[in-house]
Amino acid sequence: MLKLKDFKITKENSHYGTGKRKEAVARVWLIKDQPERFIVRSDESGKEYYLRDYVQRETLFRKIMLPFKLTGTEGKFGIYATVKGGGISGQAEAIMYGVAKALVSYNPDLRATLKKANLLTRDAREKERKKYAQMGARAKYRWSKR
Is the pTM of this model over 0.70? Predict the structure, then answer.
């Protein structure tokens, strides 16, 4: 199992980006010297996982790799990410946004491609709060006349 100590993260060999989605926050480093090595550290458990094992679903893994595919930089970088809050799906999308921002810090010319694919615009949809005297955010209790 790879650990953070296996990665040498310095300013010269890495690029950083922060991604957010729902309640999830991901801090992402793209590491030049370690292609095809993807590690995620969960702040809740404090453990490190391989990215594919952590997200569990292939669709989420492909979503994370989307910025690389669009910009033609697949196989050039390894990923080290720390995630906090939210669920697996929100964390995966947060990592995706973080990867996109890190790619822009690597090469500002990629900004137009990522912007067109909507990967630099944060998805601002949040969970709506539950209201008092209701079952949930919108669902109401059944009304009875008598």
Answer: yes
